[in-house]
Amino acid sequence: MSVNKQAVSRAVFDEVILPVFAPAQFVPVRGKGSRVWDQQGKEYVDFSGGIAVTALGHCHPALVDALKTQGETLWHTSNVFTNEPALRLATKLTAATFADRVFFANSGAEANEAAFKLARYYASKHHSPYKSKIIAFYNAFHGRTLFTVSVGGQAKYSDGFGPKPADIIHVPFNDLAAVRAVMDDHTCAIVVEPIQGEGGVLPATPEFMHGLRELCDRYQALLVVDEIQTGMGRTGKLFACEHYGVRPDILTTAKALGGGFPVSAMLTTAEIASVMAPGVHGTTYGGNPLACAVAEAALDIINTPQVLDGVQQRHQLFINALNQLNQQHGIFSEIRGKGLLLGAVLKAEYVAKAGELVAAAADAGVMVLVAGSGVIRLAPSLLIEPADITEGMARFSDAIARVLAA
After folding, report:
1. Distance between CA atoms of 103 and 126, rounded to whole angstroms?
2. CA atoms 84, 85, 89, 90: torsion sign
3. Is 117 one of the annotated active-site residues of the chain?
4. Most buried pick, 7, 132, 279, 307, via CB within 10 A?
């Protein structure tokens, strides 16, 4: 099918794209900072951040410059060679974290796939091939590959694709007693999100995170912390596990790592990484110079006191605005989350209207998300201007009023 640029519209999606998404009816074509414009020139305030991806807003000059510069230098080398941007980014990530070794990939699912394979491979090499149990949590989300969707614990995403990878156990999130009940010497890893993102922006309690670390230590299992959505400054720390003072054995990050350019990373220690050897795992595009150059520029900006402290300040602006909005409309039962990953939980009588609220918000000129069942999720740029917060919340208030009046 030949389509010229002028003919591309939302209707084309239904003709040529696999129907696994249901995108909004408008088509964004341009973004700058926390504002987006569609094909008709309508402006939107972006509270969605590309689902926690565009952490520095749209078209940040430093990221644009990094992409242009690298784009005129070297695009791709494959894993047969290394490259300078990958080495610089890996060096900076290890310097900023617990980790000694980094594996680059292209998506959160790939980073988690590598993490889960490493956890089982390490246990097999160091302990026993029967030490393969992975403990994960209901309503988690770790990706869309068959392995990661099976670890995710949401049947709606994993059923219907044939036999699932075995030896994966799910228990309730924030329930340490439930973890203890299934933890044993056959456990190779516990996999946890510090804040369940897709599961409804639900933070782990400090007691839960510390308890998981203690159980992993007791049973010689690895603690795998999925920071795909919470990492790269989203919560006001470079990684959310820093809030808890809990050291992971393996950490995964993606989404905001490239500020919008597809890139992901799995971080671990030298000791755990030592079981790997050439050919055990791999990727064609992972660590390519374009992605790593952009990610390095993003990391250099995000991992600064100015930006991380600014996240906490903006958090309070959003909390104040949401509470004020709730006083006016009375539709939220709880506001939760950390930093700029926020969940406004709809009261029971409004849960069914979540999708309607998102659509009405778009009509009013503000982009918001849904998480879990009946939770409005906000994941804006870490640099969003206070004026954009004010304007976006005013538009969201109008959208809520319209839905409630219908």
Report:
1. 20
2. negative
3. no
4. 132
- Does position 225 have pLDDT exceeding 80, yes or no? yes
Residue showing tokens 């990492």: 231
Contact 227, 98 (CB under 8 A): no
Please check the confidence at residue 406 and state whether its pLDDT lies above 90.
Answer: no
Whether pLDDT at 3 is above 60: no
Q: Mind listing the pLDDT tens digit for each residue in 88-135?
A: 999 999 999 999 999 999 999 999 999 999 999 999 999 999 999 999
For residue 58, what are the CA distances in angstroms to 19, 36, 238, 371? Answer: 27, 8, 20, 22
| Largest CA-CA distance found in the chain, in angstroms, rounded | 62
Is 159 catalytic? The answer is: no
pLDDT value at 87 more than 60: yes
| Residue 349 pLDDT exceeds 90 | yes
Among the listed residues 103, 116, 173, 226, the single catalytic one is: 226
Active site residue 255: yes
- Report angle CA 37, 43, 46 to the nearest 5 degrees: 85
pLDDT digits (tens, 9 = 90+) for 274-314: 999 999 999 999 999 999 999 999 999 999 999 999 999 99
- Which pLDDT score is estimated for 4? 53
User: Of 131, 133, 237, 255, which residue is the catalytic one?
Assistant: 255
CB-neighbour burial class of residue 169 (10 A; exposed 0-12, middle 13-18, buried 19+): middle
